Potassium transporter TrkG (Microbacterium marmarense), 479 residues
Amino acid sequence: MATGPAASFARRVRAAAKATSDTLRSATTSSPARFAVVVFLILIMLFTALLSLPIAAAPGYRVRFADAVFTAVSTICVTGLTTVDIATTFSGFGKAVIFVGVNIGGMGVLTLASILGLVISKRLGLRAKLMAAGDSNPLRAHGGPVNEGQTVRLGEVGQLLRTVALSTLLIEGLVAIALYPTLVMAEINPLDALWEAPFYAAMAFTNTGFTPNPGGLTAFADDYVLMTILMTAVFLGSIGFPVIYALWKNHWHVRRWPLHTKLTIITTMLLFFAGAIAFLSLEFNNPATFGAMDAWDTTFQAFFLSAMTRSGGFSVVDVGELYGSSLVVGSMLMFVGGGSASTAGGIKVTTLAVLALAVWSEAKGRTSVEAFGRRIPSDVQRVALSVVAWGATLVALSTIVIAQMSKAPIADVLFDVISGFATVGLSTGLTADLDDPAIYVMAATIFMGRIGTVTLAAAVAATSRSQLYSLPVERPIVG
């Protein structure tokens, strides 16, 4: 056995490596939510550094630090809001960095944290599984005893995480293949289309909305095939990985779908059609948006705008030219967002569905909230209320601060703030004109909007506290 200074140094190195490994393992299993926040912060700092490199800027451009920070936050949080023109400001290297960033961010906060935790600790601890299930499991695990159905699904977390990664690669690949010929037919250089197709595919599926070419989608406003492909990719990204997993596992056997899948699909479609009808009714005579289009174009663009306000972020019409009433409708749709554990943001459609069912049950005088032959427990309703309260508070505070800093019209500020909170990416043009302090506030809003509602919901859902007594009941006056 070797002795001496070399052997002693080797032992110290092994001891330090083991201590570091134990620390990382403890971090991933004891507090996955906190670990997820740290992971995203590290990623934002890393991508800020990469986007600040001279090689990341296009010839003749220099990326300011504030713009690099904001773009990194918008990239990792798959938002799409930007203070600069992505197409002209960044070089091929910069766009490649953004492409990689949105795919990492698109996997979701806790999903990414669970995957990294699995790599570091070689296994998912029970608490990490509970947190991963809380973000990506259709039958969210709650405090208290775990029933048999939830136990089975906790065992599927590893498979579900693999499904997340594989479905991302598969769907983006298929979308890129479908987009390539449409881009070529739209007179995009075939060599440029080779990288623009996967770029658009990633931006659509991750619901980010960055565009690689100057002018964005305006050049493709009449290309219904391309826009339909983008809408489909946005829809698949916004319904969430649990829904994709359930559809893949149960195919089209609707009766076998979990309650989460049913609520997500139904609420998503209702909002999609309701939003399109609202935009069609409000904007059909607006000469700056739909007024100059024929009936077919107006109808299609209304549906496209409805889909994009759910979190897609792509835009053909100038959002800043929408009527104030349409901005309010768009703000409402953005605030709701997409499905849980999806690339979309917002409070999530299942949150809205649960609250709507609770209101309906209360109006009917029912003692429990039920849907499709299942009872929704009260702790899920508390999580839904917590998420809405968090979102509304964050939006209100950010709107007040940015409005005070920018002195811009409150309707424009509110729209852009909700777009940032819900990681949508649509803008009235306000964000690009913000000063540096307001840019940092908007970046913080995006970050808290992306991770806040998810970690809050997962933390509340995974917390288990036993109380062996109950206090006397007293009813305050409500309403």
